[in-house]
Amino acid sequence: MKKKRTVMPVQEPEIRNKNFLEVALGLSLKAAIIEASRCLDCKDPRCVKACPVAIDIPMFIKEIESNNINSAYRIINKSNILPAICGRVCPQEKQCEGACILGIKSEPVSVGALERFVGDYALDNKVCVKEDIKENNKKVAIVGSGPAGLACAVSLRRLGYSVDVFEALHEFGGVLKYGIPEFRLPNNIVDDEINNAKKLGIKFYKNVIIGKSITIDQLLNEEKYLSVFLGCGAGLPRSLGVPGENLTGIYFANEFLTRVNLMKANTFPNTPTPVRIGNNVAVVGGGNVAMDAARTAKRLGAKNVFILYRRDIDALPARLEEVHHAMEEGIDFRLLSNPVAFKGKDYMVKRVKCALMELGELDSSGRRSPVPTGKYKTYNIDSCIISIGQNPNPIIKKATPELVVDNKGRIVVDNHQTSIKGVFAGGDVVSGAATVILAMGAGKDAAVAMDEYINNL
């Protein structure tokens, strides 16, 4: 317990806020072994219980300590097919590391950094896990190639199913590709992890919009899939609903990030997909997506980027690491500020008016409610990025009226089964926008339910 937590090296803030190269540089083998030696190998490991996919964390860490990295990868791979991704983007401080017993009197083990180290090692060294798959000659369809869809697809493939994955966009990965900037999650890491799924025999099809290209009914009745999993995420942005929100220069975060991440706006003029942001950029929201948008705007050349958030810094839902990195990179946090109107000229946004807030009583989220003070402040802006959450896209619901959804458009399920026989769902399309690892956990659990359903036909 006297050993200090190993700190992962990162790019210097004034260098990294001008490029899209990965910020965190990863652990060396020596550093990983030193950090692994801090694990107490608890008899009742709380970290495993706190992991949504139940990785045997103490066991893989002990393998790292013994320099058995291939073995560590095999242990992780049983529960998590995307270790190089999850090691980068999971909120470990709220899950495995938050439950680590070392954290009571010291600092928790850097589980995320160790998982990333193993995942990267496996990709760099092309470590393969031999899968003994016994074909059952039954086929299933997966809608969406994001974390929920990938986890469900691999789980079902391991059970012997023929698995086809349908993706609406022109690249695979879902939110991993369009929603997370490369300085946090390089695209080649996502591609490599998906290639591992392809090696299992899973087939992927891009540019297929379920509800437009083909319907759920057609998948079941014409294409003869025994079951369908909907893991199509939450891509419909929420609006503020304030005057002036339709002015040019106001983006929703998922649109903004998709243009940069998937359409390569960050490489303009080498690619013909620029994004206009100007010098002064406001970002509304306090989650990970807001941090991603703000840090991306800074890298695109904005001189002044500031976060507008209606609560205080203690209530920010973003990962602590993302907030810390944003502050280091020069992002300004203008807290207790709630946008109430946008003003423009010639249809271009020029100013945002904010109500100044104070914190009142605790609400249902366990945070103190923001209460207007009656005071206002106006900021000059060239663009604004709104990041206050997303709901599921309504395309599938419109094409499938019998699919029951709630008042936010989220699919209603019972043990992952929807209102349609044989159709299951999981991830953000059910929970609303959440984390990668929670979506993966839902995908894995849904695969179990689908297998049980098919076996009872």
Annotate the secondary structure layout.
Blueprint: H1 13-16, H2 29-36, H3 46-50, H4 57-65, H5 69-79, H6 83-89, H7 96-99, H8 111-124, E1 139-143, H9 147-158, E2 162-166, H10 175-178, H11 187-199, E3 203-205, H12 216-221, E4 227-230, E5 236-237, E6 250-252, H13 253-261, E7 280-284, H14 288-299, E8 304-309, H15 320-328, E9 332-335, E10 337-345, E11 348-362, E12 368-380, E13 383-386, E14 390-391, H16 395-399, E15 423-425, H17 428-431, H18 436-455
Helix pairs in contact: 2-4, 4-5, 5-8, 6-8, 9-18, 13-14
How would you characterize this protein structure?
There is one protein chain. The strands form four sheets. The protein has a five-stranded parallel beta sheet. Strands 6-13-7-8-9 form a five-stranded parallel beta sheet. A three-stranded antiparallel beta sheet has the order 10-11-12, with no helix packed on it. It is of the alpha/beta class and 457 residues long. It has three domains: 13-124, Alpha-helical ferredoxin (Fumarate Reductase Iron-sulfur Protein, Chain B, domain 2, Orthogonal Bundle); 139-235 and 392-455, 3-Layer(bba) Sandwich (FAD/NAD(P)-binding domain); 239-386, FAD/NAD(P)-binding domain. The radius of gyration is 23 Å and the shape is globular. It has helices spanning 13-16, 29-36, 46-50, 57-65, 69-79, 83-89, 96-99, 111-124, 147-158, 175-178, 187-199, 216-221, 253-261, 288-299, 320-328, 395-399, 428-431, 436-455, and strands at 139-143, 162-166, 203-205, 227-230, 236-237, 250-252, 280-284, 304-309, 332-335, 337-345, 348-362, 368-380, 383-386, 390-391, 423-425.
